[in-house]
Amino acid sequence: MKTYVIEREIPNAGQLSAEELKNISQTSNNVLDEMGEERIEWLESYVTDEKIFCIYKADSKETIAEHAKKGGFPANSIRELHAMINPETGKA
Q1: Distance between CA atoms of residues 33 and 29, nearest Å
Q2: Distance between CA 30 and CA 15 in Å, rounded?
Q3: 2-86 falls under which CATH superfamily?
Q4: At 36, is the pLDDT very low, low, confident or very high (cuts 50, 70, 90)?
Q5: 18, exposed or middle or buried, with CB in 10 Å at 0-12, 13-18, 19+?
Q6: Least packed by Cβ within 10 Å: which of 9, 61, 81, 87?
Q7: CB neighbour burial string for 47-59, b if at least 16 within 10 angstroms, e if fewer
Q8: Model confidence over 5-14: pLDDT tens digits?
Q9: Percent of the chain with pLDDT over 70
Q10: What pTM did the predictor assign?
Q11: pLDDT in tens, 75-92
Q12: Closest Cα to residue 58, out of 81, 77, 74?
């Protein structure tokens, strides 16, 4: 599976309560269970003021879009991740 970064435009995302984030996460998990871990896996998400950036492994962009549609989530941008770098990358 490939790794993708999904940009979700959600007004006031940074103001969502812990309970709201839990509910969103539960909805996502339910859809993931329905779709099957051999097709899609949620790794983590980052919540900012107006957007949520999610990191997923999936067999295709279409699978990511299907998850978003079934879960009722926006997927404004779906980009394949080609590499990850960090401070250690500069020391190699």
Answers
A1: 6
A2: 24
A3: ORF SCO4226, nickel-binding ferredoxin-like monomer (3.30.70.3090)
A4: very high
A5: exposed
A6: 87
A7: beeebbebbbbbe
A8: 999 999 999 9
A9: 99
A10: 0.90
A11: 999 999 999 999 999 996
A12: 81
- pLDDT, residue 46, reads 98
Check the CA dihedral 3-23-38-73 and report its sign. negative
Which tokens sit at 9? 């435009």
What does the pLDDT look like over 54-76, one tens digit per residue? 999 999 999 999 999 999 999 99
Q: Where are the domains of the chain?
A: 2-86
User: How many C-beta atoms lie closer than 10 Å to residue 76's C-beta?
Assistant: 11
